[in-house]
Write a structure and sequence with these properties.
Strand order of the largest sheet: 1-2
Distance between the termini: 58 Å
Structural class: mainly alpha
Shape: globular
Order of helices and strands: HHHHHEEHHHHEEEHEHHHEEH
Radius of gyration: 23 Å
Number of helices: 14
Largest sheet: 2 strands, antiparallel
Mean pLDDT: 86
Length: 445
């Protein structure tokens, strides 16, 4: 057994599972702000109970995300000790800031939303949702800073075999921080919006809590539409950043083995790393050059222009990228149809569209995972781009057997956590908000 491979599998498993939850809670948090504003402005029991319902679902997801995030971070000191030693002076700072400046802000005001309903005014509830949303978004920022530094390191010097921070602002706003952060936030808004849309659609199909479902559905559709359209722009900005800072990743994303002038945008193909060729290649001529550099003559290096030992896994990078883009196309078509139906005032009665909304719930989660795979697999063989290779970052004292045991243990725990999350979500959804459907007032228990 290869300890490096097992450590990578464990990290992929723990991060991949954890990454189900932050995008959901970040996206939902901003929808909660909107709902809380409705409650603050009207002080109606309808909006109070609507907000409380979605806060309960948010809290369940937040709790699982916190539990899995702790496990993920511990790996840096166990399986990746040489990585921590090499870049700890830089990597530790944003992680500490995330805990001190973001997580505590988010969790403190979430406590108000859990326990403060009969103790504080609607304005305080609204302010608490705003602080939760800001805290969760700031948390994402610090994590993106840490990961982006691994993609495009800046503001450091190598001293005595370690990367030492010499320019905080250069490290903080390294070339990939802002494009990736904006793209991540829009992805989170899409995830939260589609989650709210799908659950609201279930209520509409069941003809239960219809007014609650209509109002929630409307908010999800508006935010989802804005986020999905925004992703076309920030996704483009993120791709342009990759063009200029990680050309090997771009070549793998496009299955480009030969250097090209006036490069086309690949629509379909099957990259064969051994044959160094992309089979069944279909592309839009000159589109890649035009989109990323504004002309049709730009030159892009193919993988053959880079040392073969520095190629990322081509098929995995290529497939992840194109699957992510394909899912975005589905999202765009879905919200476009939703807006058309909404303008025609038929969206709440269109059973086919409502069923599609339920089916759509898991797709943004998948898109997030594939986007993360593009970023991480496409950076290989480097754990810190052009500085430290993944195989050189492993802990030497942790055996392959110990890592395998922890993979099995984590797998069982995560399976139980996922089952628990689904069970509790279903229980809360079936219970529904405590609103009397005729009066629109809270149900007295």
């Amino acid at each position: 057994m290869d300890a490096v491979l097992l450590a990578r599998i464990q990290f992929a498993m723990t991060v991949g599972f954890h990454f189900l939850f932050p995008p959901l809670t970040i996206g939902m948090s901003w929808i909660l702000v909107w709902m809380a504003a409705k409650y603050k402005n009207t002080e109606s029991e309808f909006w109070r109970e609507t907000l409380r319902f979605w806060v309960r679902l948010f809290t369940l997801s937040f709790a699982i995300g916190v539990a899995t995030g702790i496990t993920m971070e511990f790996q840096f000191g166990t399986n990746w000790a040489d990585y921590s030693r090499y870049v700890g002076d830089i990597f530790g700072a944003p992680l500490a800031a995330e805990g001190l400046l973001s997580f505590f802000l988010e969790s403190t005001f979430l406590g108000v939303l859990i326990f403060g309903w009969n103790r504080v005014k609607p304005k305080t509830i609204w302010f608490s949702t705003l602080m939760v949303a800001i805290g969760s978004s700031l948390s994402a920022f610090w994590i993106i800073v840490a990961n982006s530094w691994m993609q495009t390191p800046a503001g450091y010097e190598i001293m005595e075999g370690r990367a030492v921070l010499v320019d905080f602002w250069a490290a903080l706003f390294n070339p990939s921080t802002l494009p990736r952060y904006i793209h991540t936030i829009n992805a989170a808004l899409t995830t939260g919006a589609f989650f709210v849309l799908g659950i609201s659609a279930w209520f509409l199909l069941k003809k239960k809590q219809v007014e609650f479902a209509k109002q929630s559905f409307r908010m999800g559709l508006i935010i989802g539409t804005v986020a999905v359209c925004g992703q076309a722009l920030d996704g483009h900005a993120s791709a342009v950043q990759v063009v200029h800072t990680q050309p090997e990743k771009l070549a793998a994303m496009e299955g480009m083995f030969e250097t090209q002038k006036g490069a086309g945008l690949l629509v379909f193909g099957w990259p064969d790393q051994e044959a160094e060729k992309t089979h069944l290649r279909m592309e839009v001529p000159y589109a890649l050059s035009l989109l990323t550099n504004g002309d049709t003559t730009s030159e892009y290096k193919g993988l053959k222009d880079f040392p073969k030992e520095e190629w990322p896994p081509v098929l995995a990078t290529f497939a992840s990228f194109h699957t992510m883009v394909g899912l975005w196309g589905i999202f765009f078509a879905f919200v476009l149809v939703g807006v058309i139906l909404y303008r025609r005032k038929t969206v709440y009665d269109n059973a086919l569209y409502l069923k599609a909304a339920i089916v759509m719930i898991p797709l943004p989660f998948l898109a997030n995972e594939f986007g993360w795979m593009v970023a991480e697999i496409g950076r290989q063989p480097w754990i810190v781009y052009k500085m430290l290779k993944t195989r050189d970052a492993i802990s030497l004292t942790v055996s392959a057997g110990e890592i395998l045991f922890s993979i099995i243990l984590f797998g069982l725990i995560y399976a139980l956590l996922f089952a628990l999350w689904m069970f509790l979500l279903r229980k809360e959804i079936v219970k529904g908000p405590k609103i009397d459907e005729e009066s629109g007032k809270a149900v007295v228990q």
